[in-house]
Design brief:
0% helix, single chain, mainly beta, 115 residues
Length: 115
C-alpha cells in the first residue's frame, strides 16, 4: 500500500525559506516519477513540480520556477522540495504525489507565509 508522509511545513515570513520532505513507502520509490502539488484556501489543487525517476530532470510550474527546487534521494525513499523567496500566495497545503497525477498523495503539510 502506498504511504506518503509529508513534513517540514510551518509558518514563515515572506522572503523566507522552507524545506519540505516526503517519506515514501509501500512501492518501489526509485521506479516512479514524483511530484509536489498544493492547494491554497478556496482554490483548486495546483501542480508545483515533478522529478523523473533518477532525479536527473525536473519540471516546475511557472509560479515557482527559479525559487523552488525539487529533489529526491532514492536510497532513502525521500522526496524534497526546497522553497526559497516565499510569497504570501504560496500559503497552501503541500502534497507529495506518486508519479505525475493527483493520486495517490499524502495527507499534506501546511505552509503559511505571513508576516
Amino acid at each position: 500500500q502506498v504511504h506518503l508522509v509529508e513534513s517540514g511545513g510551518g509558518l514563515v515570513q515572506p522572503g523566507g525559506s522552507l524545506r519540505l520532505s516526503c517519506a515514501a513507502s509501500g512501492f518501489p520509490f526509485g521506479n516512479y516519477d514524483m511530484s509536489w502539488s498544493r492547494q491554497a484556501p478556496g482554490k483548486e489543487l495546483e501542480w508545483v513540480a515533478s522529478i523523473d525517476k533518477p532525479g536527473a530532470r525536473t519540471y516546475y510550474a511557472n509560479s515557482v520556477k527559479g525559487r523552488f527546487t525539487i529533489s529526491r534521494d532514492n536510497a532513502k525513499n525521500t522526496l524534497y522540495l526546497q522553497m526559497n523567496s516565499l510569497k504570501s500566495e504560496g500559503t497552501a497545503v503541500y502534497y507529495c504525489v506518486k508519479d505525475r497525477g493527483w493520486w495517490p498523495r499524502g495527507q499534506g503539510t501546511q505552509v503559511t507565509i505571513s508576516s
